[in-house]
């Protein structure tokens, strides 16, 4: 079980949960702004360009806020690339960077992807589409597997021997590199600076002066650089060193760091059942609304959960999947039917992953400004969302 990265409720401690319909995602635009300011500062001091990884957070109603601070975004394929351009994550004049990586590109989509993207990152030197893209106006990059496993969970280790993500660095030869102007690696997940440094040292030892060939080097995501304990000075120093030594532009493409602690998922207690355990049955679903709870798995932080709380509950999800549970939480006061609950740090890898399994309602989406207390509902989902995905 992975630990939650939530650092607590922050401003959400004073948000009245009854102001939004249940279920709802509530995103604090001021918290996002403060994360963006940190990332901009890192970019300014180090010389890196910072891109938002859309796969973690694609909330296009906040695209103009994100674009105000970051240098662009990275997409995982055609649809995210289209979203980036259409919803102006890369600026109204499309002046900012769009970098697209996919483990494999469909040949039928490559023309459009090339038109949309500034950088196109391939998974191996002989990947299908490299030749086609090399004759288009897009800068090609190669994703490598640095073969140094520093993650918390082998299930999510892109550096494993059998990984399908990136070309193993030990197999890389100079002749493989001719079409590529850029180098890309993404190996970290919710990590501090030390594993990045170790990874970079491995790459530098393996590639040496070959690194001078690249005009850009993309260090991927997984850097939790907006967390209070993150070694930002170390990161800035390393990026500066890489850029100087190899005369290249360094890119970071964080997802989580942009929205850390910036969103909550609000739900309601629909029923209580005191059997062999005390169950609080919610209108929220781990499997439909926050699937990483089951997939990762991890236990999300809950507003009001206290280690020595007198009232333990198993918080059960709305679907009939046995595993649809958020886990055990302890409250100071007993829960009642109709009470609101809120899981913390729910902006990333949630909204982008929701589904309507069992006909479970999708959470509405609200933007809250913790400075002005202004609240706006940006989307509510009804039965049509469910039926329109079926036939
Ligand atoms: C290629 C790539 N870049 C960036 C990211 C963003 O990572 P994170 O949200 O952990 O910062 C991911 C996440 O899986 C990724 O696969």
Fold topology:
Blueprint lengths: L23 E5 H18 L2 E5 L9 H7 L2 E4 L2 H9 L10 E5 L8 H7 L2 E4 L7 H5 L4 E7 L21 E2 L13 E3 L8 H15 L8 E3 L13 H15 L2 E4 L3 H4 L3 E12 L3 E5 L3 H4 L2 H4 L15 E6 L8 E7 L8 E5 L19 E5 L6 E5 L3 H5 L4
Parallel strand pairs: 1-16, 2-3, 2-10, 3-4, 4-5, 5-6, 6-7, 6-8, 8-9, 9-10, 12-13
Antiparallel strand pairs: 1-11, 11-12, 11-15, 13-14, 16-17
Helix pairs in contact: 1-7, 3-4, 6-7
The structure holds pyridoxal-5'-phosphate.
The site of pyridoxal-5'-phosphate has 15 residues, from α8.
Number of strands: 17
Helix content: 10-25%
Total discrete domains: 2
Strand content: 15-25%
Bound chemical compounds: pyridoxal-5'-phosphate
- CA(first)-CA(last) distance: 37 Å
Unreliable parts: none
Number of helices: 11
Order of helices and strands: EHEHEHEHEHEEEHEHEHEEHHEEEEEH
**What is the CATH homology-level superfamily of the largest domain?**
Alanine racemase
Q: What value does the Rg take, in angstroms?
A: 22 Å
Largest sheet: 8 strands, mixed
CATH class of the largest domain: Alpha Beta
CATH architecture of the largest domain: Alpha-Beta Barrel
Shape: globular
Name the average pLDDT: 97
- Structural class, by secondary structure, is alpha/beta
How would you characterize the overall build of this protein?
The chain contains eleven helices and 17 strands. It is α/β, with parallel strands linked by helices and about 400 residues long. The protein folds into two domains: about 10-25 and about 260-385, Lyase, Ornithine Decarboxylase, Chain A, domain 1; about 45-260, TIM Barrel. Strands 1, 11, 12, 13, 14, 15, 16 and 17 form an eight-stranded mixed β-sheet that branches. The protein has an eight-stranded parallel β-barrel with strand order 2-3-4-5-6-8-9-10, surrounded by four helices. Strand 2 (about 50-55), helix 2 and strand 3 (about 70-75) form a beta-alpha-beta unit. Helix 3 (about 80-85) packs parallel to helix 4 (about 110-115). The longest helix has 18 residues, at about 30-45. The radius of gyration is 22 Å and the shape is globular. It binds pyridoxal-5'-phosphate. Pyridoxal-5'-phosphate binds next to helix 8.
């Amino acid at each position: 079980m992975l630990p939650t990265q939530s650092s607590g409720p922050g401003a959400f401690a004073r948000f009245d949960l009854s102001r939004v319909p249940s279920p709802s995602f509530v995103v604090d635009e001021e918290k996002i702004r403060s994360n963006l300011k940190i990332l901009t500062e890192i970019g300014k001091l180090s010389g890196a360009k910072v891109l938002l990884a859309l796969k973690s957070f694609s909330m296009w109603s906040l695209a103009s806020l994100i674009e105000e601070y970051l240098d662009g975004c990275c997409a995982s394929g055609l649809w995210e690339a289209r979203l980036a351009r259409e919803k102006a994550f890369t600026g109204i004049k499309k002046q900012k960077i769009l970098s697209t990586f996919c483990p494999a590109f469909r040949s039928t989509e490559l023309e459009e992807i090339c038109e949309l993207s500034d950088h196109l990152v391939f998974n191996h030197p002989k990947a299908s589409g490299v030749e086609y893209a090399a004759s288009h106006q897009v800068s090609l990059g190669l994703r490598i597997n640095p073969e140094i496993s520093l993650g918390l969970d082998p299930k999510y280790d892109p550096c494993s021997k059998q990984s399908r993500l990136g070309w193993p660095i030990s197999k890389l030869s100079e002749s493989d590199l001719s079409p590529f102007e850029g180098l890309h690696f993404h190996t970290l997940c919710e990590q501090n600076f030390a594993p990045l440094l170790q990874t970079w040292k491995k790459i530098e030892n393996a590639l040496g002066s070959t690194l001078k060939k690249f005009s850009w080097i993309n260090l991927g995501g997984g850097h939790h650089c907006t967390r209070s304990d993150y070694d930002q000075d170390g990161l800035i120093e390393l990026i500066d060193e890489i850029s100087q030594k190899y005369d290249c532009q360094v890119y970071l493409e964080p997802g989580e760091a942009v929205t850390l602690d910036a969103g909550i998922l609000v739900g309601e207690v629909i029923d209580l059942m005191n059997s062999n355990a005390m169950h609080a049955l919610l209108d929220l679903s781990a499997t439909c609304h926050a699937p990483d709870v089951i997939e990762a798995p991890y236990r999300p932080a809950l507003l009001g959960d206290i280690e020595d709380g007198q009232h333990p509950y198993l918080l059960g999800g709305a679907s009939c999947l046995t595993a649809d549970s958020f886990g055990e939480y302890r409250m100071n006061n007993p829960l009642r039917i109709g009470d609101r609950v809120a899981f913390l740090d729910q902006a990333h890898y949630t909204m982008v992953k929701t589904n309507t399994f069992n006909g479970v309602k999708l959470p509405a989406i609200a933007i809250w400004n913790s400075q002005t207390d202004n609240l706006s509902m940006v989307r509510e989902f009804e039965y049509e969302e469910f039926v329109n995905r079926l036939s």
